[in-house]
Every structure is written in structure tokens, then in C-alpha cells.
Amino acid sequence: MGHSRRSMLAAGLVALASRTAAQVASVCPTTDVCFKLNIPENTASSGDGDIFFQLSAPATYNWVALGQGSSMSGANIFVLYTAGNGNVTISPRSVAGHSMPQFNSDAQVTLLEGSGVANGKMVANVRCSSCNSWSGGSTGFSGSNGNWIYATKQSGGAQDTTSQSANIDEHDDHATFQWSYANAKGGNSVNPLVNAGSSGSGSASGGSGGAATSCVPRQAGAVGTGTATTGTATNGGSSSATSTKADDDDDDSHHGRPTNFPSGWTRPTARPTGNPWEDYDKREPLEERQSINYCDEDDPSNTGFTPIASGGGGNSQKALIAHGVLAALAFVIFFPAGAIAIRLASFTGVVWFHAAFQAFAYMVYIAAFGLGVYIASERHYLSEAHPIIGIVVFVVLFFQPILGLLHHVMYKKHHARTAWSHLHLWLGRAAITLGIINGGLGLKLANDAPRAGFIAYGVIAGVVWLVWVAAIVLGEKRRARAAKDAHLASAGHPAAGHYAPKENGT
């Protein structure tokens, strides 16, 4: 009995020492998705070197991604998906603009022991030797925090592929967050994530480091014990991991290659809480096995998680929906309706009805434009085609009332269209057409619009545009015929069915 107690005490001290030597910070944006981070002591002091991080998500997800940066464009992204047979694939990727991230063969990452699929979770323990700089940016790890992003694709089923360049569908959810490094710095372990479990986190006291979590890593059959597809390639392949030089060899003889936990390792060697030698009797081993506080069962902890911008729900998503609806109403309904009225209607004061209706449409677009600028600034989309076209259209429409007034005044004076008339007409036609096209670009940029939404918008916008063009053609024919009749009348030959030109002169 004494020998057993001493063994359990020793194991408990070893577990505690392991956690103290290598601090691991955890953030869980949702109850199902968690990330962990360790910045070794040498990296934290110099700001440059290896870092370790873990991705954990349900194995039913199509993929989950963690990235460095403040937006998707230019970020250093790591995508995790299942590889089949209990394995996982980690795919380092980069992205230019707002497109699908592409495999980055220059990334130096290694998938470590503890990675795999078990108990409904896919887990990747990753060592990154190139996370200080990448093609889209750079960062240091000596500071107190850093900007990160994450995204998930929950629908679509498991990927089950070993290809690191596999196509991935657009995300269901994403966000930018600031990760506090207070609990992440310390240690020089070659794989600090093995003892970190798959969720849960230490807590800091006065920012001086994390206390050990009161949990025990699951061993045989644990989360992340499957073998893994490595995430390092030097020539664009995915065949082997690139080992990174370690500062010590204190705890892992399998450094640089993923392995399984030993098959005989069937029970923890340390109790999660309390002194292991208290109240020990013959029944305690069974009770202990039944009440083990495994780390992957802990409640998620968001220690150090400071959201910056969310792509799923919240005010940002509401603003995005409002922007799309208002802009669509302006360019697919209101502006075309006002333009059709001036061509086909012939009641007294139609020109002022046209002016008032277009002014109302412009006010609707002003609201949509303001929301669009807010969203584009928040998500760093101002360099994309959609917001650029939106700004150009906004400026053009700003001058349309002035040009319209000049057109009306000059027509009444000269009884013919002038340069102001043609400028007003063709700028308006170009603005409405661009606005309709830009709506489709906006749906594409939103990145999560359903295919049915694209189809519905395309059909409705296309039909309205064709009706509007038909109204323009019909209106021009009626105008030409009215002008001919007016000419005949002025020559003393009034025509039957004479159609006098409208007062508005369009």
C-alpha cells in the first residue's frame, strides 16, 4: 500500500511539473470548438521561434481553421479536417483577397503525438516553426497578445481526405479575436499539448502564469490518440513532417513524428484533485476510475479570448442583412420603377413624381451605403470590388439630382435635349446597371449566402432590368414619334393621333 501511495504521489508531482514547465492557454469560441496555445520560454523572450497550438472540434464538422492575422485576407491559416481511419489532416494555407485559402507548401509545421479522431472529436497538436512570418504578414510572440482568426464549416460531413490542398467549402461561422498570451508562455517541452487535454484551461493570478488545471489527460482511446497526416511539406507534398530543432529532449523520444499512445496505457497515473494518499482503501481504485475528471470533459474556458469581429450572428450579421436588403430594394425596385415611370407614364407632373421617387430611392441607398462602409471597414473589405463599385455608384448618384434639374431647365429653354440631358440619362442608366450587378458581387463577398439566394436575386434583378430596358426603348420610340408629329403640326400638317411631347422633355 505504501509503495502504491508513493507511486501515485510521484505521478501527481510529475503531472504538475509538466503543466508548470509548459503553460498552455485555451480559448473556446463555442462549446464545441477549442484552441490551445503554448509559447515556449525561448520564443517568448526572443519573440521568434517555435510555437505550439491545438485545434479541437467535432469530427462531424467539415473543417475547422485557426489563423494568425486580423482578417481572412493575408492571414496565416491552418485548416483541420478528418483524414479517415481515425486520422486527421492539418493543412497550412494562405489567402490573397477574398477567395478559398490555398495550400502553403512553405509552411513549417509538424503534427505531433496526441493528434487524431476519438470520442467524436478531431484534434490536431501542431508545432509551427514558421509562424513568425509568412507571405501575408508577420508577428512576434514577446508581446502580451496577438490577433487571430478562426472559422468553421459545420455542415457537409467529414472530409476524410489526406490531401492538404483539398477544396473546402465556405465557412458557416468565423470571427476575429485577440488572444492573451499571459497563460501561454513558458516551458521548453517538445510537445506541451499532450498533457493539455483537448479542452479546459489554466487560470492566471496577476498575469504571472497559469495554475494547473484540475484534470487528467485521457490516455488509451483518448481524444487525439489516432495517428495523423503530417502538415509539413517542402515541395508541395504531404508525405512527411519536418522536424524542428528542440531546445531539449526532456519528455518525448518521438520528437518530430506523430505516434499513438502506448496501447497498454489504460488508466491515469495521477488523481485530478486532492492528496493521492488520503483515505485510500481497496475500493478507491474503482471509484477513482469512475470519477476521473478528464480534461476533454471540462467545461470550456474562454480565458484570454477577446472577440474583435464576428462573422456569425450578432450586430455585424444584422448589419450585413440590412445592407443587402436596402441596397437590393434601391436598385432592383425603386430606381428602376422611377425610371420606368418617366418613360411610360403621361400624367401631369410626372417629372416631379420621378424626381421625388428617385430621391426616396437614393435615401434608401444612403442607409445601405452607410452600413456597407461600416461592414467593409470592420472586415477589411474596402479593397474588394463590391465596396469600390458601391462607392463609385454613390458618388454618381449624388450628382444625378443636379444633372436632372439642369436637364429639365435646359429642355424647357431649347425644346431639345442638351449635353446635360444626355449626361443625366446615361449616368443614371450606368448607375442602375452597376448597382444591380454589384448586388450579385455583394452576395459573393458575403461568403455565406445560400445558392438559392443567388438564384432568386439573379432572376428577379434580371427580369426587372429587362423590363426597364424595354421601357427605355419604348419611351424613345414614343418620343421620336411625338417629335415627328410636332414637326408636322408646326408645318401646318397636324397628324392623326398626334402625340405631343411631354413637358419633361425626356
CATH topology (level 3) name of the largest domain:
Immunoglobulin-like
CATH class of the largest domain: Mainly Beta
SSE succession: HEEHEEEEEEEEEEEEHEHHHHH
Note the gap between the termini: 103 Å
What does this structure look like?
The protein has 506 residues and is α+β, with helices and mostly antiparallel strands. Helices cover 38% and strands 16% of the residues. The strands form three sheets. Strands 7-6-5-4-13-14-15 form a seven-stranded antiparallel sheet. The protein has helices at residues 2-21, 41-46, 284-290, 314-344, 350-378, 385-414, 419-446, 451-490; strands at 25-27, 34-38, 51-58, 63-68, 76-84, 87-94, 102-103, 109-111, 116-118, 121-128, 133-134, 137-138, 145-153, 173-180, 305-310. Helix 6 (385-414) runs antiparallel to helix 7 (419-446). It is built from eight helices and 15 strands. It has two domains: 2-248 and 255-310, Cellobiose dehydrogenase, cytochrome domain (Immunoglobulin-like, Sandwich); 314-490, Four Helix Bundle (Hemerythrin (Met), subunit A), CATH 1.20.120. This is Integral membrane protein.
